[in-house]
Amino acid sequence: MSDELKADGQGRSPRLWTGDFYNEGVNAHAGLFDKLGEECGVFGVFGHSEAASLSYYGLHALQHRGQESAGICVADGTEFNYHRGMGLVKEVFNNDNLQTLTGTASIGHVRYSTSGESKLANAQPLVFKYREGDLAIATNGNLTNAPEIKSELEKMGSIFQTTSDTEVVAHLIARSKHDDIVSAVKEALLKVEGAYAFLIMAQGKLIAARDPHGLRPFVAGRLGTAWLFASESCAFDATGGAYYRDVEPGELLVLDMKTGRVTEDRFSPIKQRAVCAMEYIYFARPDSDVDAVNIHSARKRMGRQLAMEAFVDADVVTGVPDSSISAAIGFAEQTGIPYELGLIKNRYTGRTFIQPSQELREQGVKMKLSAVRSIVDGKRVVMIDDSIVRGTTSLRIVNLLREAGAKEVHVRISSPPFANPCFYGIDTPSRTELIAAVKSVEEIRQAINADSLYFLSKEGLLSAIGQTNSEATRGYCTACFDNRYPTVVPDEAALGCGCD
Ligand code: SF4
After folding, report:
1. Ligand 1 atom nearest residue 428's Cα
2. Is residue 245 pLDDT above 70, yes or no?
3. Which residues does the record give as [4Fe-4S] cluster binding sites (predicted)?
4. pLDDT tens digits, residue range 407-455?
């Protein structure tokens, strides 16, 4: 231990990380950081001669939602061309393979793996041949009754080639008594429960559908006369397009490749609207709007609210990059305490990172984050983070700040305690591994070595998210904080993202 650490005046012994290495991108579960696993991202194009290239840029902008695999399927009116591969969008696609993807409509996908299993068979879009021709499907989300439906279908003779929920929907469509794709999709979606944004291509049509609660975000955009669809609106900016509107919960938009017509339809009435609150807190990019609420602005309001609920006198405010920076700015604005870049993220520790020697194990966290000594040395620091999952990440970061000379570290979290697993496509540890499910706030404070700790109240969170949107578009899922799931959640529902 360094003299500086001994001299922190708090009588604490900093605990250094001695666990696994950070190895982002290879396997999300092997990460040094215990952040929540993200989901998947979908991107669709209709009515543009460069559908594949636009999809490439759109998926690239959605890369934060999944790094395991990427794929694009393009339709030219008669047949499908597709390419899928393991890895990042820029690794899977190049000029040569993009040029083979000719067509004016496309659906694309980036996948986050929850099982740790890297299988090309699970990469999306999934493409099938069925009695009516080709069928391609890409989804973001998780179907809570997929295991049940799958087992029934298997009893009836269906053979599954992937472990994906998406294939369950493909079988339901293929087995439908309806010949036309729109009726078959509606019938299939009425049988499934859960959270999803689907893009489906078949019979010369592209179909976009969002679950009846609106749990997963799904937006429509325009680029000239072309239509775009994406998990997040930041993908439209990457293509030169613009946000048009949200796909409504329970809505089905049908785009006909022969006529160019767009039909607004529904497969279900809107049930209790329950947009994932964690999208606002952590998952979505700050430049995205989810249900008409800008993510950066919502996070800033969370920071302001946090300051009102749990002010602490300090010298600097810093945010854990990247997702907590907006909330840290809000906290600083509200309190007048200067915002500083006390923590810096190293952006180049990704997939090619080689595991260092045993002696350097405890240095692993520093490959990813650095505390800026000249900013925090001798200072009382307020550290804003978006959530605490297992608690190990927070402990490491607090210790980084102490090692860099911080006199006090006060942790403020811009969400309520995360105490319940997600069944809707977010990869979460089991309930017993969630620190907030097994420890009090004071016990967590001790576990993460902080001088003080406060979590944003649920009321504060909801008011921060919903301040700017209309009554009609308010309604959020907060189940991971309050254990109130908007759908029936069967015990046997597989945790994690059904994209794999
Ligand atoms: S349980 Fe939490 S992470 Fe899952 S959809 Fe609801 S708010 Fe989002």
Report:
1. 3
2. yes
3. 276, 422, 477, 480
4. 999 999 999 999 999 999 888 888 888 999 999 999 999 999 999 999 9
Lowest-pLDDT choice from 26-40, 303-317, 342-356: 26-40
Residue 55 backbone dihedrals phi, psi, to 5 degrees: -65, -40
Contact 164, 124 (CB under 8 A): yes
- Strand ranges inside 8-151, DSSP E: 41-46, 69-75, 80-86, 105-111, 126-130, 133-143
Residue nearest atom 4 in ligand 1 by C-alpha distance: 422
pLDDT tens readout for residues 81-134: 999 999 999 999 999 999 999 999 999 999 986 543 557 888 999 999 988 899
353-359: Cβ within 8 A, 24+ apart: 353/21, 353/22, 353/23, 353/24, 355/21, 355/23, 356/21
Compute, in angstroms, the gap from residue 278 CA to the centroid of ligand 1. Answer: 6
- What separation in Å is there between the alpha carbon of 480 and the centre of ligand 1? 6
pLDDT at residue 465 in the model? 93
234 labeled binding residue? no
Structure token pair of residue 204 = 């010369």
Q: Which domains does the chain have, with CATH numbers?
A: 41-271 (3.60.20.10), 293-466 (3.40.50.2020)
Q: Measured between alpha carbons, how far is 261 from 267 in angstroms, rounded to an integer?
A: 19
Element (H, E) at 149: helix 146-155
Q: Which of 372, 384, 435, 393 is nearest to 34 (CA)?
A: 393
Q: What burial class does residue 77 get, using C-beta atoms within 10 Å of its C-beta: 0-12 exposed, 13-18 middle, 19+ buried? A: exposed
Active site residues: 40
Instruction: Calculate how far, in angstroms, residue 477's C-alpha sits from the geometric centre of ligand 1.
Output: 6
Q: Does residue 114 contact residue 154 with C-beta atoms inside 8 Å?
A: no
Q: What is the pTM of this model?
A: 0.88
For residues 214 and 291, the answer to whether their CB atoms sit within 8 Å is yes
Q: Is 17 exposed, middle or buried (0-12, 13-18, 19+ CB in 10 A)?
A: buried
Q: What are phi and psi of 177, to 5 degrees?
A: -75, -15
Is residue 499 marked as binding?
no
- Asked whether residue 313 is marked as a ligand-binding residue, the answer is no
Token pair of 483 as six digits = 């254990």
Beta bridge partners of 344: 370
Torsion angles phi and psi, residue 462, rounded to 5: -65, -35
Residue 498: what pLDDT?
37
Size of the chain in residues: 500
Ligand 1 proximal residues by C-beta, below 6 Å: 215, 276-278, 422, 424, 426, 477-480
